[in-house]
Amino acid sequence: MRYRVRVLLVSALAMSLAIAGCAKNTAGNKGGGASGPSTQSAIIIDKEGKSPTPAPDVPGAKPGGTLSWLEDGAPEHLDPQQMYVTDSQSIGSLLYRTLTGYIEDPGGGPLKLVGDLATNTGESSDSGKTWTYHLRDGIKFEDGTPITSKDIAYGISRSMGKNGENGPPYYKQDLDPDSKFTWAKGSIAPGLETPDDKTLVIKFPDVHPEAPYLAALNSTTPIPVATDNGQAHEADFVASGPYKRQGTYDQQTKLTLVKNTNWDPKTDPIRHQYADQWNFDFTPDRDAQTQRVMADQGADQGAVMTANVAQGSIPQVQNDAALAKRTIKGVGTFVDYLAINTTRVTDLKVRQAINYAFDRQAYIQAVGGSAVALPATALLSPTMAGYKKYDAYPSADGHGDVAKAKELLGGQTPKLTLCEPNTSTYQKYAVVVKNALERAGFQVTLNMLDKTAYYTTIGDKTTTCDIMRYGWGADFPHPLSTLSVLWNGRYIKAKGNNNVSYLNVPELNKKLDALEKEPDLNKAAQMGGELDQEIMTKYAPDVPNYDIGVFLLHGSKVGGTFLSPLYANANLIDAYYTG
Amino acid sequence: MGGTTSMWADGQMPSADLDPGPVQVADAKPAEAKAIVGRSPGQLALMRLRRDRTAVVSFWVLVFFILVAVLAPVIQWIYGYNATTTNSALLDDSGFPLGYLGGITFSTDNASHHIHVFGVEPTLGRDLFMQVVWGMQTSLKIAVTATVVSTILGVVVGIVSAYFGGWVDAVISWIIDYMLAFPFFLFCLAVIPVINTRLAAPGGCHCDVSPDKRVLTIIIVFSLFGWMYTARLVRGQVLSLREREYVDAARAAGAPARHILFRQLLPNLWAPILVSFSLAVPATITAEAALSFLNIGVIEPTPDLGRVINTGAQFIVGLPDPMYLVIPGIVIFILVLAFNLFGDAMRDALDPRSTR
Questions:
Q1: Chain A residue numbers touching B93 (CB-CB < 8 A)
Q2: Within 10 A of B25 (CB to CB), how many other CB atoms are there?
Q3: With A541 labelled, which of A266, B120, B124, B179 sits at a CA distance of 20 to 30 A?
């Protein structure tokens, strides 16, 4: 063994010297990254429940084989009501069903929201306060017990208690805005009614046209009260999807999923059950994942990565035709911003000048190039329904328009404090911003904050930061999940703000309120795209930096997978083993 | 260092200057015999040091590095390029330097129209040579200042503790043991961010933590945690010296404690102090580099050798730009090695009978 390892090391070193040491870097990989769509058409909502069951087969797919998933560390939560992070949601797509769900298009087309356990996306009455769901026939848990509306009502209630405090906050906020409900095992939250085993009625105190999206969150995963074992549910869970846990799960190193025989494809318009087994390996870090999937040996032929290809290997993958075929790349759901504190930088012209002076191209190079970061000029993510591409502060080469910035400043040299989390990477990014802004005459001081206290510090209304790095990933494809959260001034509080540009314009707040109440989801998506441009043009509260790029590899024997626009991972429910 | 005192045990050189640098020979007695030249211990040590080739080479290496650090602005003026100038046009799309060996070029035919003798930094496109030169200044500034402060602190505490003895000694020894029990890096990890956040957090002083203040924080923490070893060493020395005849003589002559401590005892302590100082400096340089590894060290845009190495290490996997780690790595390696070798040589010269 030792010998083999040494040979590997030596050859790796020789290879590297050939690649990096002695070869001339002539930027041959320019433009090899992903490119985002120019507009995102609105979302398809299957109100009538016309999606076919079982889900149409993936072309070329065959059953059998073992697929694996490589991740650096186990997801924090696999208890469905606690799941809020994309890695757990990807794994959850194999394990759990929800009231509604999304069908992702391998070709990058719009998302389709369909009824999952329910027959459709819900019928609203009472002008959008009450939502009624009818469940499909033949839906079962892994042990064969039928899934009833009471199990879903209990799941939603559970998400409002202590076993859901790390999950999305929406049901808690919307069903119980005054925090009157205290959850205890077995209790059902107010507003959830189950007239019979096949019907669930959700009554919000307020109008919630986005309820079909909320129903797709893992909060609505059914939980039989009898199996609710509290904290232990993280490792000992009950599956409703096409796969179930085999053996015990140690929550640290590995998880094995096998076919759930009680899952009936005829009840499911979304999922498939091709591979016999899924192995989740929670030990390899970014470099190990890159090396294993690039080497493509043995079981790794059926593996998908979760971390982007290691920075140093990206040029190699881009320039190798065989590897390039195995990449999963594109734009993820996260957008990186520089928020400008509008309570401190009150002059719109100064904020516009910051936007003009910013050197987006240099920033992207510092982040790691167009494979992992795509230039963002809009506030919404390109994966958001209704996304509209525009550039309110254009420059010829992506390096900013310094002349225009100087003109807007008119000889002023404003002093700005730039806040970033204190890590070695953010320090580099901070230098890029500082040098870019100083070209136009700004005087920028860096304030590197302890990273554990970062969001607490900048989320405090009295913060002394003028510019702050901020990132946002929308929870569901309704523009309100970005625009209202980040720029509706009504939600500003003393501490823990998401609106860290502290923008509070009554006129804009009214428009965002209207967006939140718009009953037609497609119209809401369009309104979102327009509002996005209006916010940037009229108020310039942020500098959009980049949309996070995904650049993964899968093994040579994985078929059918593609970039999941929801979770920015490999799509697992269409994947199969090519044998 | 146990046997160090034996060489001036005769006590005739109470104020001998043992500085191995440009030695003042004020105390040297006029030659009484032509054949036998009387030499002070300082002269002897210097002679031994001069004969030691390692010592001579490492000494000149140190002089070179110190000159580079001190003359950084002059070097920048001659080189004609700023350490903080970023240039993304020197990088490819993924942020790696264009050209050979991490962008090393001696021609001006590139985006910056300037030579880059050590190449450029990936991600930012700054000139690596200027980063290393200024980084060395930061590292040496921190290491030397912190070591000087902690040595002074250690010497004073050690002398006072040993000379007065009794409860003073007991209390100070207890404090020394207490401080030594602290795991240094864990303490840094806990204390430095707290101090910095305290300075920056709203509700605190509403001021920003400037890079200079961060450097100051690091110097203070290093000084506070570096004095114990010197203090113990000095205490041991003084315990054995304070019963000597010349001290008794001074005491009998009615000299005040201050005079005995700093005029009679201190000059005899220079040898161990110098050795411990020269060995503590490289230890502080590496510790400061380690702080950068933990992200609590010197921050951008102040150039720093330790931080350059920390970031460089991230570019070794997949090996897109190994030169970014190799060049600063070699520089800090030579610097620390030279300090250590010189410290060792000085110990040998001042105390030839000690064994390693």
A1: 27, 29-33, 365, 369-370
A2: 13
A3: B124
